[in-house]
Design a protein that fits this description.
The chain has about 375 residues and is an alpha/beta fold. Helix content is about 35%, strand content about 15%. The chain is built from 14 helices and 12 strands. The longest helix has 20 residues.
Length: about 375
């Protein structure tokens, strides 16, 4: 049989069903320990491995076209595992418009270990090339970024890393586009990670992180971190994420269709100054996105012409909810300045454009017309 299409792989996962009982829904192996039936029995303790988590890990590796997958308790736990590959004296290049939780992990914890981080606009290849040092061991890319939706050319950055003397690893946070729209490992990256809390699980009902690697050496390191740091995903959360992945293609296509409609609506609204959405042809990363991804996703940000009434806008929806997180079936609106990026200093936020006028929208899968009507109602509360 030919290789199944992505949608079929998402539905059936790695094994497709429980090999022991034939259960079509892969079971939740809710256990902490196991009877060792054989000398080489693969399961001994669920912190080390659990069959439900293993099915999720193999499924995401299949979807990302990588060699090995690893499931963590959160997206930040996955970032922690990636940074655990570094040691004192190392240098890391990282997207300048990075998720606030990753920024906090770097600035408040990881710099204590004498590891240096340089924030770079990954869309500026000259700036990336100039930032490499002999001790650079990693390039950490978000694309599109959160919340400014900046795009990096994964293949081009990977090529630059391959030419650098230190041959740094290339890590891509693929949370916004998922493997349905973008597969960084096929573009030259070494590691791809997800906050699976978002689009992969897709229902705002679990917290999870996923990593997929190429090659045995990186896999051994990830196994060590997961086992030793105790950050592995619990069986029930693994099952919820597996269940979410089954409908990923359907959901992503609806997220995107609604996001396109919302972006076009916002572009033409008199109280909106600018829309940041990768799917708009005038977006600076549009051409690169078309080259390396098959879709634009369901995330956008927009800035109001005035900050007056911004908080009323956030709370003014009937269906669109003011809440953190993203990627679930419900449409959520977020205030990055006080929520996702509150830990970033004001001068840095201002430089990136994360001001008191910027709002982020995670566009859900509701009826398109209902979303647009709710946006109209909310924006009526904005100042002129």
């Amino acid at each position: 049989m030919d290789k199944p299409a992505f949608a079929s792989r998402a539905v059936h996962g790695c094994q497709g069903h429980d090999p022991h009982t034939g259960a079509l829904s892969f079971p939740i192996y809710q256990t902490s320990t196991y009877v060792n039936a054989e000398d080489d029995w693969p399961y001994c303790y669920s912190r080390v491995q659990n069959p439900t988590r293993e099915e999720l890990e193999k499924t995401v590796a299949l979807l990302e076209e990588g060699d090995y997958g690893f499931a963590f308790a959160s997206g930040l736990a996955a970032v922690l595992a990636v940074f655990s590959l570094t040691k004192a004296g190392d240098h890391v290049l990282i997207s300048d418009d990075v998720y606030g939780g990753t920024y906090r992990l770097i600035e408040q914890i990881w710099r204590r270990y004498n590891i240096d981080f340089t924030y770079v606009d990954m869309g500026d290849l000259d700036a990336v090339k100039a930032a490499f040092r002999p001790e650079t061991v990693m390039v950490f890319i978000e694309t599109p970024t959160n919340p400014m939706m900046k795009v990096a050319d994964i293949a081009a950055v990977s090529a630059l890393a391959g030419e650098a003397a230190s041959r740094p690893l290339v890590v891509v946070d693929n949370t916004f586009l998922t493997p349905y729209y973008q597969r960084p490992l096929t573009l030259g990256a070494d590691i791809v990670l997800h906050s699976a809390t978002k689009f992969l699980a897709g229902h705002h009902d679990t917290t999870a992180g996923l990593i997929v690697t190429k090659g045995d050496a990186l896999a051994e390191s990830m196994r060590l971190f997961l086992k030793t740091e105790g950050t592995g995903l619990a069986p029930f959360d693994s099952w919820l994420t597996l269940r979410g992945i089954k409908t990923l293609p359907l959901r992503m296509d609806k997220h995107q269709a609604n996001a396109v409609a919302a972006a076009e609506f916002l572009q033409n609204h008199p109280k909106v100054e600018k829309v940041y959405f990768v799917g708009l042809p005038e977006h600076p990363g549009y051409a690169v996105s078309q080259k390396q991804a098959s879709g634009f996703g369901g995330m956008l940000s927009f800035s109001l012409k005035s900050s007056a009434g911004a908080e009323k806008v956030l709370r003014g929806g009937d269906m669109i909810l003011f809440a953190e997180s993203l990627g679930g079936v419900e449409t959520l609106i977020t205030y990055p300045m006080t929520q996702t990026h509150a830990s970033i200093p004001k001068d840095v936020r201002d430089k990136m454009g994360i001001t008191d006028r910027l709002l982020r929208l995670s566009v859900g899968i509701e009826d398109t017309g209902d979303i647009l009507r709710d946006l109209e109602k909310m924006l009526a509360l904005a100042g002129d």
